[in-house]
Amino acid sequence: MGNSGSVVFQVELDGVLYYQSATLTGSDNAESVSVDIPVDATTITLKRMMPEMAMVMTTRAGGCETIAKLA
């Protein structure tokens, strides 16, 4: 990403947004994220969103799936 790109991170549990970062650039410090996961949650979705690509990793009980969508 360097200093010229930007990214937003999201955490979803069962399709509900639980966390969204501010827009970060390569010059920003790393951030720690802590999300309380309900015991009945079945799907965790981690998203990294950039202007040119959205990368989605969905983790389920049986494994994980990565989907890349080009704009």
TrEMBL record:
EC number, as in UniProt: 3.2.1.23
UniProt GO molecular function: beta-galactosidase activity
Alphabetical UniProt keywords: Glycosidase, Hydrolase
InterPro entries tied to this protein: Galactose-bd-like_sf (IPR008979), Glyco_hyd_98_carb-bd (IPR013222), NPCBM_sf (IPR038637)
Gene3D superfamilies referenced in this protein's UniProt entry, alphabetically: NPCBM/NEW2 domain (2.60.120.1060)
Record-linked SUPFAM superfamilies: Galactose-binding domain-like (SSF49785)
Domain Glycosyl hydrolase family 98 putative carbohydrate-binding module span(s) in chain numbering: 2-46
Top-level taxon: Bacteria
Record-given protein name: Beta-galactosidase
Organism of derivation: Vibrio maritimus
